[in-house]
Amino acid sequence: EPEVTQTPSHQVTQMGQEVILRCVPISNHLYFYWYRQILGQKVEFLVSFYNNEISEKSEIFDDQFSVERPDGSNFTLKIRSTKLEDSAMYFCASSEARAHGYTFGSGTRLTVV
Amino acid sequence: SQQGEEDPQALSIQEGENATMNCSYKTSINNLQWYRQNSGRGLVHLILIRSNEREKHSGRLRVTLDTSKKSSSLLITASRAADTASYFCATDANQGAQKLVFGQGTRLTINP
After folding, report:
1. Mutate to test the interface with B, among A21, A30, A39, A43 (most CBs of B within 10 A)
2. Which residues pair with A95 in a beta bridge?
3. Residue of B nearest to A49 (CA)
4. Cβ atoms of A19 and A110 closer than 8 Å
5. Distance between CA A70 and CA B86 in Å, rounded?
6. Pairing relationship of beta strands A5-7 and B85-92 according to DSSP bridges
7. Pairwise CA distance, residues A8 & A16, whole Å
8. Nearest of B74, B44, B43, B42 to residue B58 by alpha carbon
9. Do A63 and A54 form a contact (C-beta atoms < 8 A)?
10. What CA–CA distance (Å, rounded) separates B81 from B83?
């Protein structure tokens, strides 16, 4: 069964450093998403991406965050200057069409120290 | 309370019993989805029910949706130890891009 692949599975970074989280969505999917889950809390929407542009973003997704689909297969989330409160599990997801279920990756656990 | 609240927060039953989890939400929705998350892992899509549907089945799963009460339920029949996980409902209320709003989840434990 097709999978969404995320790398790395774990990342530890120092506060203020830039991090790039990588995702390979399912190849025939058109919609791409990033969500995050702080330990013990809800899964929170960050951003959706369609047709090579951001279609929706949350209040969490401020100027420190950016997304890119550089080569038609990868989908990346960049955090420019990490803060302690960015520590969370970050999930990439993709869906085939609007109002379809998502396929989530296994997540990247980001720890900012 | 917030969109997509599950009830109960934790449920522990014996293997073979049925498990029922409920979800309430506040706004109008396009669809509601249920996901499963094993500890420390990603979310697995279980079932999607559209706002004009009332019931859906998938294997041992049965989902109902009552838009008048803004609630949904997930029933797992003949539970197995492997069903132990957290279960989340997520609502898609957006008119534009799909944006799911997740609840806090129900932690289900199946005792062998």
Report:
1. A43
2. A31
3. B97
4. yes
5. 34
6. unpaired
7. 19
8. B74
9. no
10. 5
Q: From B69, B68, B59, B14, select the one nearest B36 (Cα to Cα).
A: B59
Q: Which among B61, B93, B74 has a CA at the least distance from the CA of A45?
A: B93
Q: What span, in angstroms and rounded, lies between the C-alpha atoms of B32 and A82?
A: 33
Q: What tokens appear for A70 in the block?
A: 């550089």
Closest CA to A54 of A83, A36, A78: A78
Report whether B39 contacts B26 (CB < 8 A).
no
DSSP element (H, E) containing A98? none
Query: Is the Cβ pair A95, B98 closer than 8 Å?
Result: yes
- Residues (pLDDT < 50) of chain B are 1-2
Q: Mind listing the pLDDT tens digit for each residue in A28-66? A: 999 999 999 999 889 999 999 998 999 999 999 999 999
Nearest CA in chain B to A93: B43
Q: Give me the mean pLDDT over the A12-41 stretch.
A: 95
In the three-class reduction of DSSP (H, G, I as helix; E, B as strand; rest coil), residue B9 is classed as coil
